[in-house]
Amino acid sequence: MISQSFSPAAAIRPRELAAYGMILGPGAGLWFVSRHYPADMPPWGPFEFSWLIWLAVTLSCFWFLRGLSRLSQRARPGRWRQLAFLAGLAVLYAVTQTQFEYLAQRMFFINRIQHVAMHHVGPLLLGLSGAGPVILAGGPGWLRAICHTRAARATMAVVNQPVVAAVLFVGLFFFWLIPPIHFRAMLDPVLYQVMNWSMAVDGILFWALILDRRPKPPARVGYGTRAALAVGVMFPQIVLGALITFSSSDLFPYYAFCGRYFPSISAVADQQIGGIVIWIPPAMMSVLAVLAIVGNIRRAAPAH
Fold this sequence. Notes:
The chain is an all-alpha fold.
């Protein structure tokens, strides 16, 4: 239990307020520049600033670091797992709140790199970190209260059912690539945010389930099921990538409609590169996940 892993002594409030101020201040600065002086925004700044993404990333990082200071040495994740968490956050931030996102809205293959980063690479790193208990240890009381509500537990019980988890993981990736839906999502600002958030949240939930280091119980599914899920979701994505790679027609006219950032790359070539991005990197993530699961099995095996 988290309450047994750190001292209940309250943090000094002025320091906590200062920390939140250091989060809100730079966010307000980025918002102001992106809103009023977008041409002056450096490449590492957001194309369109999002308070929701900014707070999700910065607060998660702050609560994680504070959780490390509250947990005992034994309860803390190892150094490489800490680095995996920070790298996962950095990946998600880089593809959504820098000018990389502008390129992702102008080239199909860059858009695919963005979604693979949001659905696979970043969430897989977060899953490897096992950072959930650390964030709860460093987070405010209301966060722990929400996570322990009956509604939250029931929701997690449903989305962590193996079949549901696999269908959501593959289905959402397919759904947003249905050509008419993709066209509409790229033009509608609200639907665009729904698309991106669904990719990131679903990826985090799936890889957290797959890469849980614990045996069952207390983990929701056993190691064998997790390995089967990691391998099973690989093949539909390979098929999807192959279909797009070998298509000879323009399946995603949005990018011609808005104007490709690299006009020398034709629509078919853009799709071919994007199809390869869908085909190969996600398969590599599944292989890495299986290797991580094998490592977890070895660690959980009783010593002889």
